[in-house]
Amino acid sequence: MEMGRCPVKSEQYPGLQAFAVDHMSIKESAHVKNRGLYKHNIFIVIKYDFFMKVINGREEVILAEFSDIPEELNTVFFRTDINEPPEPSVRVEQAVDTILKIRALQNPRANILTTSHSSIPDGTLMKNFSILKDELERTLDPITPEISEIIMVSTLAEFKKMNEERESSLIFLDNVRKAVPEEKNPPKNTTKTALWKILEGMAKVNGALPCCHRDNLSLRVFSDGCFCNDFFIRELEDITHLYGIDEGLKVWGIAGAKTSKLDAIFVTENREDLMVALTGGPIFILLLWALIKEGSTLSRTLPGNIGKANRDLLESLYSKEWDKARKKALNLVERIESQTIQVIFPIDVIIDIDGTETVVDLKDIDKGRFISVGPNTMTMM
Known about the structure:
Blueprint: E1 16-22, E2 25-28, E3 42-48, E4 53-56, E5 60-63, E6 76-79, H1 90-104, E7 112-115, H2 126-139, E8 149-153, H3 156-165, E9 169-173, H4 176-179, H5 194-199, E10 203-206, H6 217-220, E11 227-228, H7 230-243, E12 250-255, H8 260-266, E13 274-280, H9 282-294, H10 308-318, H11 322-337, E14 343-344, E15 348-353, E16 356-361, E17 369-373, H12 375-380
Parallel strand pairs: 6-7, 6-10, 7-9, 8-9, 10-11, 12-13, 13-14
Antiparallel strand pairs: 1-2, 1-3, 4-5, 15-16, 15-17
C-alpha cells in the first residue's frame, strides 16, 4: 500500500462518504471498491460530512482524521511503528499519544489491538514494548486508568483470544513479520487470512507512515477502511511540501534490498542539487562491500571488512544475481570516487550481536549483522 492510499467501504461507518481523487478532481464514487487498490493516481479516502484533511501537492490527497469522530468506537486496530533502538523515542511518544486519543473516543470496555514489525524477521520487540508500556503507564490516570491492562502476545491465536477474553486493554502483537506468515507476501485472497478475519469490521488507525510504501498484510487491511493519526498526516504533509520545493539541496534517501534500488542512485549523477543518503537495507551492505574493495579515498572512514554475518546476508539475497549486483555496486563506487555522485555515509549503525541490538560506529559493523543506520546518523541527516 503506497502512502496516502486509503480505500474504504462507505457503508462500514454511518455518516461516512467514499471519495476518489483522480488528477486533482474530487468526485463521489459509489463504485469505489471496484476501482482497484493499486490504480495509479487514484486515492480512495474516507470523509465525515464535516471533517477531513486535504494535503495539496501535485495531486490532492484527502485523509480521514479520527479526532472528530461523531460516534463512540468499539475495538480499534492501531498499526504503529516502534521498530528502532529500544529506548524512549519520538515514535514511542507518538504511539502513546495516539493510543490515548483512540481511548478517549472508545467504549470504555473496548480494546485496542496494535502491532509493529521488527527489522529482524524472527526477532522480538519485547524491549520496545516494555518501553512503550512504561511510557503509557506513566500517562494513565492513577485512580481511574484509561486502560486496565497492557499485554503483549506472540501469536495470532493469542491475539484473538486476549481480545475475546479481556476488556479495556491494549493488546500488542509482537513482530507482525514473525507472527503473521502472510505479512510480507499477502495472498490474492487477502480477506481469507486469519489477520484480516480478526480485524474485519473494526475501526482502523494507521500510524505507520514509514512502512506504507510496502504492500504488507498489516497495512493492506486498511483497504477495509481507515483513519490516519495526527503524526501520519503531519509527516505526509511535510514530505509533500519538501518534494514541492524546486530550489536548494535535496537529500535522496535510499534503502531496501532490491538491486534496482542501486539504479535510483545512478539517476543522481551530475546533479549538484541531490545528495544520496544511504539510510539502510541490504543494498547499503552491498555498496559498503564495494566501497571497501575499491574506494581508496574513503578507506579511513570505512571498516576493514563487512564481517561474516553481513557476508551471509549478501549471499542469501544476491547469490543468484551476484555478477549483476557486484558490477552495479562497483560501477557506483567509481562514480562516488570521481565525485559525480554525492553520498552521505552513516556515522553509526545498529547491528545484531547474538540476538542483541547494539549501536556501534560504522567501523565496527563487522562485529554483527547490520539492521539499520544509527541514531546519531539520523540526527546528522
